[in-house]
Amino acid sequence: MKTQAHLHTLKICWLILSLALVFTGNAILGDVKAFTDITWLDIFGEGSTLALSLLFAGFILHSRPRGQVTNMLTIGFICFSAAMLQDILDEIFVLTPSMLFDDAIESVIAPIGICILAYGLYLWSQEQQAINEQLRRRERFYREHSSIDYITGLYTAPYMEQQIKFELESQQASNEATAIMLFDIDGFDSFNRQYGDAEGDRLLKQVADLIVMNIRRNDLACRYASDRFIVLLPSTARSTAEVMATEISRSLHSLSFHTGSNTQAIHIEFTHAVADQTDGTSAQHIVNTANRMLEQRKREKKEQRQQLKVVA
Ligand SMILES: Nc1nc2c(ncn2[C@@H]2O[C@H](COP(=O)(O)OP(=O)(O)OP(=O)(O)O)[C@@H](O)[C@H]2O)c(=O)[nH]1
Fold first, then answer.
1. Residue 155 and residue 161: Cα distance in Å, rounded?
2. Using CB atoms within 10 A as the burial measure, which of 25, 42, 154, 258 is most buried?
3. Ranges under pLDDT 70 in the chain
4. Which 3 state secondary structure label does DSSP give 167?
């Protein structure tokens, strides 16, 4: 996975600078305690908290893009880490009580940092709700990042099977229908050979995005296999699913795909199939039935093409 840390060089510099300032302040303004006066257990405890705080800040900067949420979380962690460092250093340095340096950092900067951190977390939860809304048609109610296909950004077949299983179980209680649709690109192998695998990957991504755009809020799209996509349609009768699949196939066919800087668009053919819970008692059964129908339609299409060639 690509790190986002390079986007945050300035923030990393601020973090290092603030820790360096705290250390320098203590070194200039304080006197080092006698070795025997130092409580090493306290240093260990406070040092662990500082290390964890820096680790959290590292995860944030490693994985998040730029923006207000990242800024708030980073400022919060900078203040909190500076206060934790001060807590450690006052075990090592004695500062004159009349100096407010120690109190200012521990009693003022620390609570300010925690307030900013809390505000950052609040913004993060708001942001997450907006992202969840966008992701709904790609993941529904369950997130498992290890099952994501990185070419299309969709989940893979095992995830879909699990979701169909959940849907069948809940449908037994509600007595509602559940349908699935399969879409398969025609001649993807020759597309790859003609335009290269990178263009093939780009096509898969665009097809995935278009499918997601064409389904409803509660439906779920996944990549089933190489050039095959599957959509789960909860509470949907087969007849409705057939209509939806035909519309999506039409929309996929009108996709204007441009390879490289070519101005001439390529239009891809698709084959689709629909199945519902009457086709089987388990997720595996229903998906197998849809696959068989799809293969059958592909064979028919190929035969038709060959007949047309012979006639021509
Ligand atoms: N670019 C790209 N190609 C892939 C990927 N996964 C599988 N493929 C290729 O997809 C092609 C699928 O070939 P086939 O199953 O014969 O499908 P097809 O050429 O569309 O044939 P029909 O389905 O019968 O029309 C193979 O060439 C695979 O190497 C991928 O992630 N990216």
1. 11
2. 154
3. 1-5, 97-99, 141-142, 312
4. helix
* pLDDT tens sequence across 274-302: 998 887 778 888 899 999 999 999 999 88
State the DSSP H helix or E strand holding residue 185, giving kind and residue range, or none if neither: strand 178-185
Q: What is the pLDDT of residues 180-235, one digit of tens each?
A: 999 999 999 999 999 999 999 999 999 999 999 999 988 999 999 999 999 999 98
Burial state string for 220-234 with b = 16 or more CB within 10 A and e = fewer than 16: bbbbbeebbbbbbbb
Distance 240 CA to ligand 1 centre (A): 29
Determine if ligand 1 sits within 6 Å of the CB of residue 189.
yes
Q: How far apart are CA 266 and CA 200, in angstroms?
A: 12
- Ligand 1 centroid–CA 298 distance in Å is 14
Among 150, 195, 206, 226, which residue has the most ligand 1 atoms within 8 Å of its CB, making it the best to mutate? 226
Is 19 strand, coil or helix?
helix
- Would you say the CB of residue 144 lies under 6 angstroms from ligand 1? no
- Is 145-311 assigned to CATH 1.20.120.450? no
Angle between helices 68-89 and 9-29 (to 10 degrees): 20
Round to whole Å and give the CA distance between 174 and 189.
42
Handedness of CA 258, 264, 265, 266 (dihedral sign): negative
Ligand 1 atom with the shortest distance to the CA of 198: 1
Q: Where are the domains of the chain?
A: 5-139, 145-311
Do 83 and 134 form a contact (C-beta atoms < 8 A)? Answer: no
